[in-house]
Amino acid sequence: MAFICIKNDEKIYSFIYSLKDWIALKEDKASSFNMACCGNQAILKTSKLGTQFFAHKAKPKDSNCSTGGETAEHMHIKYLVMKELDRNGWNVEVEKRGVTPSGVEWIADIYVEKGKAKIAIEVQWSPQTFIETKRRQEKYAQSGVRCAWLLRSGSIKDTNAITGDYAYSTKDIPVFSIYRNKTQGNQAYMIYNVNKLDSNSSRYNHRSFKPITLPLENFIQRLVSQGLVFIPYERF
């Protein structure tokens, strides 16, 4: 499953197309479509979750032409995030490769730029230790890239994946809980632990915030427009 394809020698992305335009693209018999990873012929598909993607027409011989075993939900979240970022005027890249000033390489799930702003968004659908998250975060910081993390939560009944060292979402390591929404309307995914400042609070500390739930698309809009406020970290 890939989000990039070469159409008639031009790179295209699946997430930029509306459903109507995607269907029209599928019916385009005059153009050639080739996988960006290997150049072999590509076909256009739509997953059961609604993810628009490119796939090899024939099974690839090269093991590098894989998505690394990512789940359908993981790919769907990345697709929705990229679609929303593109809709908001950001230049979006998939699996962006970069290197720190000291020569350490990194690969971002989603990387976007607008003007001087550089942001990476990592979707973590499998468990990852805080130490590993911090290590990866430091590589982005050294490269002048802001990074936000979406950590998978178990279910709607247990929506907060932010525990232990993850308990405080700070500007240095902004982490958020994401869960698949199966009961609330048409919103496929929700971000749970976004914190809203209580307008009645007289002090600016962790007690003056309360967690709220936002649809994924709305959360992404706020994230890239400086519409989020972080809880000050306090030790007791």
* Contiguous helical run count: 4
Helix % is 10-25%
Q: How widely separated are the two ends?
A: 47 Å
Q: Using DSSP, what is the number of strands?
A: 12
Q: How many domains is the backbone divided into?
A: 2
What fraction of the residues are assigned to beta strands by DSSP?
25-35%
Describe the structure.
The protein has two domains: 4-56, no CATH class; 72-223, Trna Endonuclease, Chain: A, domain 1 (3-Layer(aba) Sandwich). The chain is built from four helices and twelve strands, in the order ββαβββαβββαββββα. The protein has helices at 19-26, 72-87, 130-142, 216-223; strands at residues 4-7, 10-13, 33-35, 42-46, 52-56, 91-99, 105-114, 117-124, 146-152, 175-180, 189-197, 209-215. The strands form three sheets. Strands 6-7-8-9-10-11-12 form a seven-stranded mixed beta sheet, with helices on both faces. A three-stranded antiparallel beta sheet has the order 2-1-3, with no helix packed on it. Strands 4-5 form a two-stranded antiparallel sheet. The mean pLDDT is 83.
What's this, in brief?
The protein has four helices and twelve strands.
Offer a few descriptive terms.
single chain; alpha+beta; seven-stranded mixed beta sheet; three-stranded antiparallel beta sheet; 12 strands; globular
